[in-house]
Structures are given as C-alpha cells and as structure tokens.
Amino acid sequence: MDVLLAEAGVPYDLIFQLEDINDEFANTDVVLVIGANDVVNPAARTDKSSPIYGMPILNADKSKAVYVVKRGEGTGYAGIVNELFYADNCKMVYGDAQAVLTRMIEAIRSLGAAAA
Questions:
Q1: Is 13 a catalytic residue?
Q2: b/e per residue 67-94 (b: at least 16 CB within 10 A)
Q3: Among residues 13, 23, 38, 88, which one is catalytic?
Q4: Theoretical Cys-Cys bridge with 60: which of 40, 50, 90, 94, CB 3.0 to 4.6 Å?
Q5: Tens-digit pLDDT profile for residues 96-106
Q6: What pLDDT score does 7 carry?
C-alpha cells in the first residue's frame, strides 16, 4: 500500500504503518475508503476458505461508520465479494472519487455554516 500512496503523491511522513494504526479503527466515528477492495475486506480475517484469508488488511470495518467511494460494483484484484460492503455500518457511494469528495466536503461545510 505504501507504494500506491507514494505514487499518488502522499508524503511518506503522513503514511502510517498498518501495525501502528490498525487498532485505532475501533475508536473512529467515520472511515472513508476510496476505491479499495481487498485491502479492507474482513474476509481476510474471518473466512478461512477465502483466497485472501490471512492477508493483512485495514480494519476499516471496526469503525462506527464506513463510507466507500467506488466507480462501480466491481471486485478487487482477488475477484471476490467484499463483506464490508454489506455490513450494517457501511454505505456505498458510487461515482468519480473527486466529484464525490467535492460534494461531501461541500455538504460538511454547509452543516458547519448552518450551525454557526
């Protein structure tokens, strides 16, 4: 994952190592997942028959709420269904990530303006 983040221009000093941050997901109110599939699939922890069982994943499913932004309903590299996408705490938002995030930011800003 570090390589992908580096290719996206994320400064290395802003990247947390999985083992250093993973337990923190249980203490978060909201997790925003953009375009990920296999790296947030709880089947890696829970389904011994899954081809990704035992693979290190981000424990995004442990958050109170998860919003997943994806272009469509496709599967990840492993080609399997992501259990997270059907969890009660997960909402799917389909569309171009930049456009979706712009709308999300505007919505949050309007909440702050209404409260002021």
A1: no
A2: bbbbeeeeebebebebbbbeeeebeebe
A3: 38
A4: 40
A5: 999 999 999 99
A6: 83
